[in-house]
Write a structure and sequence with these properties.
By secondary structure, the chain is α+β, with helices and mostly antiparallel strands.
């Protein structure tokens, strides 16, 4: 799915939104978390407009949420995404590594907030209006990650995935420990991250500052 710079208006926009919401409702019985994210995207809560004349595609393949770090696109399975938030005030935590930005109240629960750029040893950048908090869950563990941007929900067909050979899959070295492969879609190579590897990695468990 691509998002252009021209937008529909008036009755056409209302019709397109109604069609989008109807498709989302069909997903509710299968995966409420995926449907909730689709609803956020359709309502523009993530800062994404509705493109002119583009009908909502029928999902083909497993649903992934696509986000970016710099010029690289990455994705995680939508079913493991608890939510997407705008970056707000965080409570600092003493004596932790620099990539732990603090903690926040996430719908009644306290969650740690990790700067994904810093965690992956990439150069940190100041927040922008497109910066988002991506909360990921695996089993009972939930961590919020600061990412540069969240762009879209995307169905990834199994035949578009390259795994096993990380060099062939065009995966950068900093993502290899946490990647399962990449999805090759048209002229895009999207790195597919394994949420369990990320959340339960040895590095993530050692968040206390040394010394």
């Amino acid at each position: 799915m691509s998002f252009g710079s021209s937008f529909v208006s008036g009755e056409d926009l209302k019709t397109l939104q109604r069609d989008a919401f109807a498709a989302i409702q069909q997903l509710m019985s299968q995966s409420p978390s995926v449907a909730q994210l689709q609803m956020q995207l359709a309502q523009g809560q993530l800062g994404i407009g509705v493109p002119t004349g583009e009908a909502l595609p029928q999902p083909v393949g497993e649903q992934y949420l696509v986000f970016s770090l710099g010029d690289r696109e990455l994705a995680v399975k939508a079913e493991q995404v608890q939510g997407v938030e705008r970056l707000g005030d965080l409570t600092p935590v003493p004596n932790v590594v620099a990539w732990v930005r603090g903690i926040m109240n996430l719908r009644g629960s306290i969650a740690s907030v990790v700067d994904l750029r810093m965690f992956l040893d990439l150069e940190p950048i100041p927040p922008t209006p497109r910066t988002r908090l991506l909360s990921l869950q695996y089993n009972e563990m939930v961590i919020c990650f600061v990412v540069d941007n969240v762009s879209e929900m995307l169905p990834v067909p199994a035949n578009a995935v390259i795994n096993g050979n990380m060099r062939q899959a065009n995966i950068p070295p900093w993502a290899i420990p946490y990647a399962t492969g990449s999805a090759l879609l048209a002229n895009r190579a999207i790195v597919l991250l394994d949420v369990a590897r990320l959340l339960f990695s040895e590095k993530m468990q050692r968040y206390e500052a040394l010394g």
